[in-house]
Amino acid sequence: MAPTGVLATLVSPAGRRDETLAALQQLQAASAAESGTTLFAINEHRDAPGTFSVFERYENDSAVDAHRGSPS
Fold first, then answer.
1. Beta strand ranges found along 1-72 (DSSP E)
2. Less Cβ around it within 10 Å: N or C end of the chain?
């Protein structure tokens, strides 16, 4: 099977940018420990502080399904 990617954009509530980033970093660490995860990248939009794009890459669809069933 081919690698699979997931792209998400999240906008933190007003005044909660740091809390949102910390939560994303916790998810990043948890995802890195999952079998089949090859990348979990967090990018904050330069022109929109508090808006984050998260790109996740997995070895295959089965790894994505396993991730979706996990707490992270």
1. 4-11, 37-44, 51-58
2. N
Class in CATH terms, 4-68: alpha beta
40: which 2 tokens?
């979990």
Domain ranges, ordered by start, for the chain: 4-68
Tens of pLDDT, residue by residue over 15-29, are 999 999 999 999 999
Distance, in Å, from the CA atom of 27 to the CA atom of 72, rounded to the nearest integer, reads 6
The Cα 39–Cα 63 span in angstroms is 12
Phi, psi of 68 (to 5 degrees): -65, -25
1: exposed, middle or buried (Cβ count in 10 Å: 0-12, 13-18, 19+):
exposed
